[in-house]
Design brief:
This is YgjP-like metallopeptidase domain-containing protein. InterPro entries: UTP_pyrophosphatase-like, YgjP-like_metallopeptidase. Helix 4 (112-146) crosses helix 5 (182-194) and helix 5 packs across helix 6 (203-212). It is built from 7 helices and 10 strands. With 233 residues, the protein is α/β, with parallel strands linked by helices. It has 3 domains: 3-60, no CATH class; 70-129, no CATH class; 135-230, Metalloproteases ("zincins"), catalytic domain (Zincin-like, 2-Layer Sandwich). Helix content is 45%, strand content 23%.
């Protein structure tokens, strides 16, 4: 079995598998390779199971084709897309009458590669714009409930995380959150706001999350399922 070994200053050895199916072992500098090989062998069933899940998700995931008939997620619901083709000086996206309308220059529309790339960029711009409204407003609402206050809230184009909280109490969100159900979004916001009280993932932290989102375990698992597709945008 192929795997990467990363030597670190940490005291323990751990195994992780990223979204591309790369098995990584994080180990202290003094741990011998034979120990790592034995650890991989002991966890072979777990590794194989997770690699199979990743393979299955890749095979079953939807494709961002941006053709008529494709649907686009927004706040947990799927909406049809419509193309308006013309000699537009600028490509544009609007959400109108429960439909995503893409106004594209004909040369762009006829080139499938350019159409997909342009539509992806337009959609990400849309999510970021809407996220700067919805995510900021909802964060302020939940801050009052939890009794905390962030310094700054930003919506960014990142793929590895859904949200983060800095040491300066700044909250960052992945623009792709705007694809998700509102209860999923609430969980991510609550998660980051609870980091203003607990800077780790200790039992105290999760107890705090549970106060405001008692089904967070299920939501975390659900997010992993839908997030695999969302992060391909």
């Amino acid at each position: 079995m192929d795997y990467l070994v990363k030597r670190t200053k940490r005291k323990s050895v751990s195994i992780s598998i990223d979204e591309n199916g790369v098995v990584k072992v994080f180990a202290p500098f003094g741990v011998p390779n034979i120990y790592i090989e034995e650890l991989i062998d002991e966890n072979k069933n777990w590794i194989d199971e997770n690699l199979e899940n990743i393979k299955r998700k890749k095979m079953n995931k939807k494709q961002w084709t941006f053709k008529e008939g494709m649907t686009v997620p927004f706040l947990g619901k799927d909406y049809n897309i419509k193309f308006i083709i013309g000699n537009f000086p600028k490509n544009y996206i609007r959400f109108y009458e429960n439909t995503f309308q893409f106004e594209l220059n004909k040369k762009i529309y006829d080139d499938s590669f350019k159409r997909i790339e342009i539509c992806k960029d337009l959609l990400k711009d849309f999510y970021k714009k809407e996220g700067n409204i919805y995510l900021k407003r909802r964060t302020k609402e939940l801050e009052k409930i939890i009794g905390v206050k962030s310094i700054d809230i930003r919506v960014k184009d990142v793929k590895t995380i859904w949200g983060s909280c800095s040491s300066k109490n700044n909250i960052n969100y992945n623009l792709r959150l705007m694809m998700m159900d509102k209860n999923f979004i609430d969980y991510v916001i609550i998660h980051e706001l609870c980091h203003l009280l607990h800077r780790n993932h200790s039992k105290a932290f999760w107890n705090e999350v549970f106060k405001y989102c008692n089904d967070y375990r299920k939501i975390r698992n659900d997010i992993k399922e839908v997030g695999f597709y969302y992060n391909t945008l």
